[in-house]
Design a protein that fits this description.
The complex is a heterodimer of chains A (about 260) and B (about 260).
Chain A (H helix, E strand, L loop, with lengths): L2 H31 L8 H11 L4 H25 L6 H39 L2 H7 L4 H39 L4 H11 L2 H27 L5 H30 L1
Chain B lengths: L1 E10 L2 E11 L4 E5 L6 H8 L7 E6 L2 E2 L5 H8 L2 E4 L11 H12 L4 H14 L15 H12 L6 E5 L7 H18 L2 E6 L2 H7 L2 E6 L2 E6 L1 H6 L3 H8 L15 H6 L2
Helix pairs in contact in B: 3-4, 3-5, 4-5, 5-6
The chains are: A mainly alpha (about 260), B alpha/beta (about 260).
């Protein structure tokens, strides 16, 4: 490979990247703005909330509980070295509310609902259902994608709240019931140290992550090559790209919110 | 009804539509014939606005389609119906909901009226009583008939068919052909059929257009086409493997290709 080939390869990749970024933002803009143009697809949005939100509840409960429990275990081990097991409640609550709740909920929803969003839209493309919508004078983005975006933004904060509550309860089970931390200290320290800004920060994160999951997973499905292989690749890509974006955005948001 | 002027479309460096000029007459069945890769589906997609041509014009009753806004295009699409190759039914909805979908989107009709209209269209395609079935429970032939019922639910002026008989057994294909002709005569719709099924095409066509690598090489009534002396047309309608459309798709010399490393 000559230097010229290398340069043109880098150039081509960069152009592709910028182009994809541009398309994805136009896609986001379109799908969000259709949400404010009547007729509103309320029924479709409720269906999507059921799919993204309600059907993710069990997986959020399980991951939330075990995350809280392992935090209780690890936190107790670390804190007891300094004789400050009493702080366990605030350690568990703060790490869950500020970080783990929004991030892990978003990652779980990406895996459960995001991948199937990509696959669903991709298959609609292969079987020409999106073209059929076009031919019936129905905008496929408005009909298929917009409800998903709004459902994502609506569902993820609720799921995150659930994750937080069950996680704190998991930490309580392990810390208080199993390892014998004082119950009053667990909840007392928590109430004293958790501030409104912590909850607010977690809430903002979960809103943004909800948008990212629905947006990127839909975009990947919508731009998938219309072949079986294309949809398979798009589904994998969607999960990877969304997860990585969530972690990067988490850092950026944290640095702004601190 | 529809007039196409000097349409051109480049597809990955290949001229998929090469200066095509033709018209689809009102109330007639026009069949666009061509082998795989002859650009017939691409032509159809441009006519209905699913793809944009590079140059040229498409007139739908004197409205030029290629430069319309999405909203204007959607208004015109309400006068069009399309049967897709795989029927493109929504697989999460049952037959009734599939047919009711365009009505629910574009009209404020009462449920009872929608129910009646769905039944009427199902009767037209001979499948009344299948309302509750899901698309996954239907055979290929039935899927197409339901797809056709959905395509005509809004009483369009033009119906487009993308390979309506491909992948069907002879009897189902016959049913679809009969439906195309019947709809055309009873409802007076203009029909445009894209196909590579020679037998069906000669049965249903009032007018035929033959495409060859994106170019229109012949058009006329089925009789004109049968009498055509263009060797490419003769090869195509007789299904001969060798002729002006070569069996071998490479220019490279076979011996050189094998012997010279």
């Amino acid at each position: 490979m000559t230097a010229l080939d290398l340069t043109s390869l880098v150039g081509r990749r960069t152009i592709d990247l910028v182009r994809t970024l541009g398309r994805s933002f136009i896609f986001l803009f379109e799908s969000v703005s259709y949400g404010f143009v009547p007729p509103l697809k309320l029924r479709r949005t409720v269906e999507q909330i059921a799919f993204i939100g309600a059907r993710s509840v069990s997986i959020i409960l399980i991951t939330g509980a075990f995350t809280g429990m392992v935090l209780g275990l690890q936190g107790y081990y670390t804190l007891s070295k300094f004789g400050s097991e009493g702080l366990l409640g605030s350690a568990v609550a703060l790490s869950i509310i500020r970080e783990l709740g929004p991030v892990l909920s978003a990652l779980m929803v990406t895996g459960r609902a995001g991948s199937s969003m990509t696959a669903e839209i991709g298959i609609m493309k292969i079987t020409e259902q999106t073209s059929a919508l076009e031919m019936m004078a129905v905008n496929p983005i408005k009909h298929v994608v917009t409800p998903k975006i709004f459902a994502g933004v609506f569902s993820l904060p609720l799921l995150t709240g659930l994750f937080d509550v069950i996680g704190i309860f998991g930490g309580y089970l392990v810390g208080v019931k199993l390892l014998g931390v004082n119950e009053g200290a667990y909840f007392g320290e928590m109430a004293r140290s958790v501030e409104f800004m912590d909850i607010y920060g977690g809430f903002v994160k979960s809103l943004v992550f909800g948008l990212i999951v629905a947006w990127l997973c839909s975009f990947k499905g919508y731009t998938a090559t219309a072949t079986t292989e294309g949809v398979a690749t798009a589904t994998t890509d969607a999960v990877v790209v969304t997860s990585v974006t969530i972690l990067i955005m988490d850092y950026i948001l944290t640095s702004f919110l601190l | 009804m529809i007039r196409i002027e000097k349409l051109r479309k480049n597809y990955n460096g290949l001229l998929a539509t090469d200066d095509v000029t033709c018209r689809f007459l009102k109330g007639k069945v026009t069949v666009i014939l061509g082998g795989s890769g002859s650009g017939k589906s691409t032509l159809l997609k441009q006519v209905v606005g699913l793809e944009k041509p590079d140059s040229g014009e498409i007139y739908f009753e004197d409205r030029e389609l290629t430069r319309l806004t999405r909203k204007e295009l959607y208004e015109i699409r309400k006068k069009m119906g399309m049967l897709f190759q795989g029927a493109a039914l929504f697989n999460s909805l049952n037959v009734f909901e599939n047919l009711a979908f365009p009505l629910r989107e574009h009209t404020k009709l009462a449920d009872s009226v929608i129910r009646t209209m769905v039944k009427m269209k199902l009767e037209l395609v001979g499948l009344r009583g299948m309302e509750e079935l899901m698309p996954s429970q239907l055979s290929g032939g039935m899927l197409k008939r339901i797809g056709l019922a959905r395509a005509i639910i809004m009483d369009p002026q033009v119906v487009f068919y993308d390979e309506p008989t491909s992948g069907l057994d002879p009897i189902s294909a016959g049913v679809i052909n009969k439906l195309i002709v019947d709809l055309n005569s009873t409802l007076g719709v203009t029909s445009v059929v894209v196909s590579h099924d020679i037998l069906s095409s000669f049965q249903i066509a009032d007018w035929m257009i033959i495409l060859f690598f994106g170019k229109k090489i012949a058009e006329g009534t089925p009789d004109d086409i049968r009498k055509s002396e263009d060797p490419r047309v003769i090869q195509f309608i007789n299904g001969e493997p060798e002729g002006p459309i070569p069996f071998n798709r490479t220019d490279k010399n076979y011996y050189e290709d094998i012997l010279i490393p």
